[in-house]
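Format notes (please read before filing issues)

Several people have asked whether sequences and structure tokens are stored in separate files. They are not. Every record keeps both together, in the order shown below: the sequence lines, then the token lines. Line labels are part of the format and must not be stripped during preprocessing.
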Amino acid sequence: MLDLEPHQSNKTEKHNGETEIQENGIKRHRTSLPAPMFSRSDFSVWSILKKCIGLELSKITMPIVFNEPLSFLQRITEYMEHIYLINKACSHTDPLERMQAVAAFAVSAVASQWERTGKPFNPLLGETYELTREDLGFRFISEQVSHHPPISAFYSEGLNKDFIFHGSIYPKLKFWGKSIEAEPRGTITLELLKHNEAYTWTNPTCCVHNVIIGKLWLEQYGVVEIINHSTGDKCVLNFKPYGLFGKELHRVEGYIQDKNRKKLCVIYGKWTECLWCTHPTTYETYKKNEKRGSEPKKKSSEEDLKSENDEADDMPEVQDSVQFIPGSKLLWRINCRPPNSSQMYNFTSFAVSLNELEKGMEAILAPTDCRLRPDIRNMENGNMDVASREKERLEEKQRAARKERAKDEVEWHTRWFHQGTNPYTGTPDWLYSGGYFDRNFSDCPDIY
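Then the structure lines:
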């Protein structure tokens, strides 16, 4: 996201009466949503979820008040917010430094979820989203390729032809009584074309606590393995669950090893804040000294009983910032959010711009693009009743179309992606068929 710094020129001009252009010719994107976030305090999700404990949630219809005004396809696009890390990886000549930059990118890709407790809209079958950011040097296309199970496929490329970033995501949602867990499925692949390298990984599990009662809070946990299929190097990142007293909340620790399993560096930080790396020996020495200086506090039986009987899972108090280990190198730091972010579903500046529909854009976009969804558009504009009715209408239209296809024994055909095999992992994947940016949209389905 390109924001004007205070010392830079603020001189702008209107183009076609709408789009704001800076003096340097780069377009400014909007910095706020048209309407503030709707309060969720008067709504209870218990009546919907109480029969769903332990079940998969993709088939459950949720009230619109628990959504945020973005499609899941747009949420995936937020992987690109810290694209400078891909550019940095492309520029490095040392494979270790490239892996460090890729690891930082993988962590940064989930950072936008911090405090984002609203659910993105489920994409309709055939729905698409495109984004071209000349200022950031990439273009991106995604498509909802399956409805049950819900699978979203995406493809992005550098405008300088220096990288390709692609994958297919199948988030499996489960309700566990007080929390909703989103287990990521599907492979993410990054190809650095200049270095003839390919990296693959999967995202950590995301969990939203207190969906019934109490303050909503979110954590990520699980082990992420990033593999460089050209060198055999591997990065293992452990996204830690919040643990005793919340000491581990948001923490990420891991290491990079070569093909002979020799540790080359240690990575540490928080996915909500920053990521550092240091030499393994330096890290081990620091940890030993840290252990000598602190004795673990024993939890009393009274505290045990209290935590078991609490109606809500209290959000652990966020611990101090990441403890810097002398000699460490900064790999990544999160972008500051806009000052009114809490009134905009805790969106980042990048997320705020994703559903922007500029004058003249409708004539260029595919008719299946998320920006044209009337339920999301009305929610963004604060028209909650209209948004809710439109959501129901679109879901009913999708059901009717599915029944019609079944009656006529017609199979659904995806437009921009096809089923295949990931060339690096050998696992099933959805691969980009090409041609989207030729803009021949004559045979796109009518889904809105």
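For reference, the curators noted about this record: The longest strand covers residues 217-228. Confidence is low (pLDDT under 50) at residues 1-19, 296-310.
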